[in-house]
Design brief:
201 residues, alpha+beta, 3-stranded antiparallel sheet, 5 helices, 10 strands, globular
Length: 201
């Protein structure tokens, strides 16, 4: 993969993004989106399951950080093997940086060995806006009762450096471990960081 330059990207820097706390502890908004595999997925289809939502943009350096060496895919695999439903969501509007067609997102998944349940397309930004998704990545964990229990960044190292992953605190893994152990999530929110979601105007 070619090295990506940071300059062309519009970033939603962590200092400028408000904490997503308003919906913590409340039912997560439902959605129905088409996927790269040609199927349509709704959050309500996952009733009774723990769900992770991952907002993504394949051209964002912060996303590349977690995919180039397989760290995000490893976490996806570990989660789905435990019965977790993992949806990747691309809310980039057509023509915007990082937007994908069904064929493109399917090809990306194959090339990068993505282990999520499905990769979903949200070109109108309806689902993204309902979750107040600001960045890529922006992560959410929903418990088996359909309640949002975590929202924020994937970890505490707000950088594009892959070497930072090994020493970071992964908030999503922590939240999943606690939810799957029937414990309360000790850190239900954190500051998201990354590239701004390229919503339709």
């Amino acid at each position: 993969m070619k090295k990506l330059l940071l300059a062309p990207f519009a970033f939603a820097l962590f200092a400028a993004v408000p904490l997503h706390a308003a919906d913590i502890g409340k039912p997560a908004p439902d959605f129905s989106l088409s996927a790269g595999d040609g199927k349509t997925y709704s959050l309500s289809d996952a009733k009774g399951k723990v769900v992770v939502l991952e907002w993504t943009n394949p051209e964002c350096p912060y996303v590349v950080k977690h995919y180039e060496k397989g760290d995000m895919q490893k976490l996806q695999k570990e989660a789905t093997e435990k019965g977790v439903i993992w949806y990747r969501v691309n809310s980039g509007a057509p023509g915007q940086n990082g937007s994908q067609t069904a064929e493109e997102i399917a090809a990306y998944d194959k090339e990068h060995n993505v282990a999520a349940t499905a990769s979903l397309l949200d070109p109108k930004g309806t689902a993204g806006r309902s979750y107040k998704a600001k960045t890529t990545p922006h992560m959410y964990v929903i418990n088996a009762e359909g309640v949002l229990v975590y929202a924020g960044g994937i970890d505490d190292k707000r950088s594009t450096k892959q070497e930072d992953i090994a020493t970071s605190k992964n908030y999503v893994k922590q939240a999943l471990d606690e939810v799957l152990a029937d414990k309360a999530v000790s850190q239900p929110e954190s500051q998201p960081y990354g590239c701004g979601v390229k919503y339709a105007k």
